[in-house]
Design a protein that fits this description.
The complex is a heterodimer of chains A (336) and B (285). Chain A is globular. Helices cover 73% and strands 0% of the residues of chain A. Chain A has 336 residues and is an all-alpha fold. Chain B is an alpha/beta fold and 285 residues long. Chain B has three domains: 140 residues, P-loop containing nucleotide triphosphate hydrolases (Rossmann fold), CATH 3.40.50.300; 72 residues, no CATH class; 65 residues, no CATH class. The longest helix of chain B has 16 residues. In chain B, 44% of the residues are buried. The chains are: A mainly alpha (336), B alpha/beta (285). Chains A and B meet through helix 9 and helix 10 of A and helix 2, strand 6 and helix 5 of B.
Chain lengths: 336, 285
């Protein structure tokens, strides 16, 4: 098989992805306990004459959809970076302990500081995620990280933190945990402008930086020896890239909960679409991640209204079979 | 303008290069040889700044590699590691373009000079027809050539290659070494780790023999490749003779394994061999 990596194919992929994303976003605005037609959406968004749904669209679904786009894109970036750094196709933000650390921190907060308002959950999650990732980093010898070691230590730290979460959940009264539990499964329920306002500037800054640095991922993917030979300061650049990945994932997880599968899946889907060169792969992974989370969130609202099914559950339910399909159909070129 | 090592100690934990001083003159073809685990790859990787030095200094083309900017060094010296990592879903052409990174900005934007260097490297390694193929689908030999092409695209006066002939069949082994010889004739300095002593003697004008993390001998192949050296360094008994084509030292081991009557064999072979065969040191275990 020759690689049909011409510019034309890339353009087609990006056009189709953008159109799908647009469609999914419109559907996300329309789906839910109160279905809203696209004319009403247009009237509301663009201030046109005719029937409008200001409260549902502007106050509830628009910020929620934007948040889904933002977190989906950021989790995808994080996953792409981690897979390149660890040179491991199975790697995702979860593997460096971010999800488990965030989950444990949230549970601890609910137990230890029950009077603190729920709005502090994201803060606890960011701190927990960063703490877990730092432990993994320290455990794998600062500055001299072998990818395999990092993966193994990440898995161990993840298990440790997960054990903590399980312990707290089993030994505490269940009513306390209805909110953290929904959050743990990865949901956009009740997220609004306030959450978006907290994180959008930081995430955007981190995301833009990551896209600018995406060619460095191509070089570091070649291994330490080649990357050094090509003029990279490998320990320093690896630290910067890893820090970007950790912050992007931890902040996203702090707002939308544990949507772990997106970080694993989006880079793989993107790689099968546009190949493994990160300046193209990274933007494609971003669009894919956005699409997955928006679609999962909208589907979760549309399936059995007024009950909502968490986006985290749906990304895994739809994503996993699709993911396996992709891995089977893309041949040797996809394997490292 | 050369590669100069002064009192260098370096290495992985548990294995050390001890106090190595070495000068590799500009424009030479230097082969690092020695038994497995002797430190030749470690030495190459230390010169390439892939491994840190623990003591001593290394200068390449007048620059101290510990203090100069790594990107600046990357425009002077290219490195081919022993087991290159094969990135997924990357075409040959993309890989060769990575070699241009030291000449580019952070985003990897390509200039006409970059395109020319890549075309040149693809042509030199006969990979032009395979340029759009994914790296992962190539044979081991084609892949090795792609990595060599990447190093060529880097367009540096110094080349450090760690066993560039591994994975290659014999035709491509010699093609690769011929290529390095061509590069040397254009004024580049080649430092190459090789396993095959006869190949090393044939192509290099300077042999560096290592054992136990130290340099044991250095010099012209004809002076260095002797039965005594093979016995001391490799613990191998062998006949050394002049290669009929290149007139450089070649060797044939005297192994007791398959020969029931070794003495007789050596006598007959000595009588049949070409006259400039050297004295053979035979030791029976």
């Amino acid at each position: 098989m020759t690689m049909v990596s011409g510019i034309s194919r890339t353009v087609v992929v990006f056009t189709l992805l953008t159109l799908s994303l647009f469609g999914a976003a419109i559907w996300s605005l329309s789906a839910g306990a109160v279905p809203v037609s696209w004319q009403i959406i247009a009237n509301t968004l663009f201030d046109l004459d005719g029937p409008r749904q200001d409260y549902i669209i502007l106050r509830s679904r628009l910020p929620r959809t934007l948040l889904a786009l933002l977190s989906g894109g950021c989790l995808a970036i994080s996953g792409t970076i981690v897979q390149a750094l660890l040179r491991n196709p199975l790697a995702s933000p979860k593997i460096i302990g971010i999800n488990s650390g965030a989950a444990l921190a949230v549970c601890l907060m609910v137990i230890a500081l029950p009077d603190l308002p729920i709005t502090y959950l994201p803060v606890a999650a960011v701190l927990g995620g960063c703490l877990a990732a730092s432990l993994v980093w320290l455990g794998s010898e600062v500055g001299k990280v072998s990818p395999t070691r990092l993966v193994l230590i990440g898995i161990a730290v993840g298990f440790l933190f997960d054990a903590g979460v399980d312990y707290i959940l089993v030994t505490s009264p269940s009513f306390k945990f209805s909110t953290p539990l929904v959050w743990l499964t990865g949901s956009l329920w009740a997220r609004g402008w306030a959450h978006l306002g907290l994180v959008w500037h930081v995430l955007l800054l981190l995301a833009v930086t990551s896209v600018i640095l995406s060619y460095r991922l191509d070089l570091i993917r070649l291994g330490d020896a080649h990357a050094t030979g090509l003029g990279m300061n490998v320990p320093r650049e690896r630290f910067v890239l890893l820090a970007l990945a950790v912050l992007l994932a931890a902040i996203s997880v702090s707002v939308v909960g544990v949507l772990g599968f997106v970080g694993l899946m989006a880079p793989h889907i993107a790689r099968s679409l546009v190949g493994g060169s990160h300046p193209v792969l990274q933007p494609c992974a971003i669009l894919t991640g956005m699409f997955l989370v928006v679609l999962a969130d909208a589907t979760g609202r549309a399936l059995a209204p007024p009950v909502e099914i968490s986006a985290g559950i749906l990304t895994a339910m739809f994503g996993a079979p699709f993911f396996i399909f992709i891995l089977i159909t893309t041949g040797k070129a996809e394997q490292s | 303008m050369s590669i100069k090592l002064h009192g260098v100690s370096a290495g992985y934990s548990g294995f050390m290069l001890r106090d190595i001083s070495l000068t590799i003159t500009k424009g030479s073809f230097t082969a690092l040889i020695g038994p497995n685990g002797c430190g030749k790859s470690t030495l190459l990787n230390t010169i390439a700044r892939v491994l840190p030095t623990r003591a001593g200094t290394i200068h390449i083309g007048g620059r101290n590699i510990a203090t100069a900017r790594t990107k600046e060094i990357a425009r002077t010296v290219t490195v081919l590691p022993q087991n290159p990592v094969v990135p997924p879903a990357i075409s040959v052409e993309q890989l060769v373009h990575y070699g241009r990174a030291p000449h580019q900005n952070l985003l990897g934007m390509r200039s006409q000079a970059d395109h020319d260097a890549v075309e040149n490297a693809l042509h030199t390694t006969s990979l032009t027809d395979l340029r759009r193929r994914p790296l992962a689908e190539l044979s081991g030999g084609q892949r090795q050539r792609a990595f060599i092409a990447m190093c060529l695209a880097q367009d540096t006066p110094y080349l450090l290659f760690d066993e560039p002939t591994s994975f290659l069949d014999i035709r491509y082994q010699y093609e690769t070494l011929d290529l390095l010889a061509d590069l040397q004739s254009t004024g580049r300095t080649c430092v190459v780790v090789l396993h095959d002593i006869a190949q090393a003697a044939r192509y290099a004008d300077n042999l560096v023999v290592m054992r136990d993390g130290a340099i044991q001998a250095q010099g012209r192949p004809a002076d260095v490749v002797t039965p005594e050296m093979l016995s001391q360094i490799y613990d191998l008994q062998a006949k050394v003779f002049s290669d009929p084509v290149s007139c450089t030292p070649a060797l044939s081991p005297v192994s007791a394994g398959r020969l029931s009557n070794l003495n007789e064999h050596i006598q007959t072979s000595q009588s049949l061999e070409n006259p400039d065969a050297r004295e053979v040191a035979v030791r029976f275990h």
